[in-house]
Design a protein that fits this description.
InterPro entries: PTS_IIA_glucitol/sorbitol-sp (IPR004716), PTS_IIA_glucitol/sorbitol_sf (IPR036665). This protein has 127 residues and is mainly beta. The chain contains 2 helices and 9 strands, in the order E-E-E-H-E-E-E-H-E-E-E.
C-alpha cells in the first residue's frame, strides 16, 4: 500500500521489533543491520529485528530512507538489497555516502549522523 505525502511516495515501511544486544555497536561504524524474524541465531545479537513487509516499487538511487523523523538520500543500491529485504528483511544500511555499491546486500545512504533507534522506530523508503 503506497502512502503519499505532499512531495514523496512511500514504497516501503517497517518497524523495529527488537534490538540485538550488540546491534548498536555497528552504529559507530556507520552501519545499521536489519533482519526479519528468520535471522540466524548467531546474527540476532547484531541486528535490529524488523517486520518483513512488501516493497511497492523498485529501490533506486536518489530516493530517501526515513528513520522516524530523519531522512537520508540513497546514494547506491547493492544488487541484492531489494530481494533480501523482501525475502528476509535483511539488509545493511551504510551511512557513508558511497556512490558505488561494493556489497550486494548493502543500501548506501548519505553520510549524516544515525538517529537513536528504539523498539517501535519506523523505517520507510520514499521516492
Amino acid at each position: 500500500m503506497k502512502k503519499k505525502t505532499a512531495d514523496q511516495t512511500e514504497i516501503y515501511r517497517t518497524q523495529i521489533k527488537s534490538i540485538g544486544k550488540s546491534a548498536k555497536d555497528f552504529l559507530q561504524e556507520k552501519m545499521l543491520v536489519l533482519f526479519g524474524d528468520e535471522a540466524p541465531a548467531g546474527l540476532k545479537d547484531y541486528c535490529f529485528a524488523i517486520k518483513v513487509t512488501p516493497i511497492q516499487g523498485e529501490i533506486q538511487v536518489g530516493q530517501h530512507v526515513a528513520i522516524d523523523k530523519d531522512r537520508f538520500k540513497i546514494t547506491a543500491v547493492g544488487n541484492l538489497v531489494q530481494k533480501n529485504l523482501v525475502d528476509l528483511g535483511h539488509i545493511t544500511m551504510r551511512f557513508d555516502g558511497s556512490t558505488t555499491a561494493d556489497l550486494a546486500g548493502t543500501l548506501y545512504l548519505e553520510a549524516k549522523p544515525i538517529p537513536n533507534l528504539s523498539v517501535g522506530s519506523i523505517i520507510k523508503i520514499e521516492r
